[in-house]
Design brief:
mainly alpha
Length: about 450
Amino acid sequence: MTRNASGKLVCTLGKNGVNRFCFWMLATLCILNLNGVVKMIFGFERTVSILILFSSLGCIASAPTTLHRVIGRSGVFFVLFLALYLSVATIMSNTTKDINSLFFQYFATFLVVLAAAASGWLLAQYKDIETHLKRLFWLWFIATSSIFFTPIIRAIAVNARNPDSARMSGFFNNPNEAGMVAVITFALALALFHGKGRSFYFGMATLISAIATIATFSKTAILSLIALTCLFIFRFIIQNGFSIRGALLVGVLLLPGGWLFSVGLDSGIFKHQQEKRLAAVQAIIWNQEITADHDSERTVLIREGLKKIAENPVFGQGLGELHLMEGPGLGVHNTYLMILGESGLFPIFIMLIFILNWVWSSIWCREAVIRVIASNYILVFLLHCMSSHTVLNRRFHNIMIGLTFGLLAGRWFYYRRKLLPVLGHTNRANHEKRLGFRE
């Protein structure tokens, strides 16, 4: 930050330009899952990892202020939680297991979150922040649109997972990951739908991302879609009250879901695997008992994970023990159980504090679009943690985690900065120093 001729603080091109370039490179690599795309189509492992590393370091090195101010209080608790988890889990780990790969994956998580937070903080200093957020949204929309081209991608891929699967996945080998990317796009589209202009485009993007989410037949993604829709309806009624327009909007949002679960399941248009997953979602919604036909192996995995947690609930079993359990040969598929089972009570307690602080910061954010984006994403993140143990390792999640940290902390700073013109020269300099300006 420097001063122009009139004495006002403005963004300079140099360091901020480097930050923007590095962030767009990082966001493109992570959101479009280019590492996974190259592996799927050509069979090469971690081809763009070096680019992710350098773009992350570039964002961090060009951070507009100190890192603890960039990530805010929520981010500080997140870093503390992640460091404590890795420390305790590494100490408690079995020395015969190879944990180096896992450790470096989580270290990369730390770097990508910090990098996204630094860029989010800078983004929050713009007055017309919605314009910049909409540009970032279209990157998510491209990743979501790839789901509709799954047959083409699988046809040219040399390393496709389940090429004959009835579930679409796009740029992601795992349909569950593709579903979460689609539902994050849906969450962003809902937040930007009532923005300045182009409501029609974001309305269409909301519909397309919802269809893409269902096309993956990911149970967690579909449940997240339903939860976000209910949250959107609740916000709309609170802000606008009961009206004919509101009733029509509620009908438009709920009718497709009602048809899907009441008529669609019995229409014969879905394959057996698709019907099975939709029926499981329906059972969860109506709090019915999930029958053996609808049940998945995740119930078995969770039971196995709980057994391991009971062996050492205070300090855990060590890094990797619930990522790949010896009996089933799979992970526990629950981030909360994974943290508790691998590192014990202290990291999960810090994680709880981090989540509460994150939610609190999003609720009290003064900028409506940031408040809705953050709260929508937090809901998706919390739901995904209940069905996957790899959430913290997914780079698209890392981008959104860091971005929400930076946007929340940066916009708080943006409004505090409005106090500067009314302060005297000495007080203004002290205020700038407290807030973390770098000349």
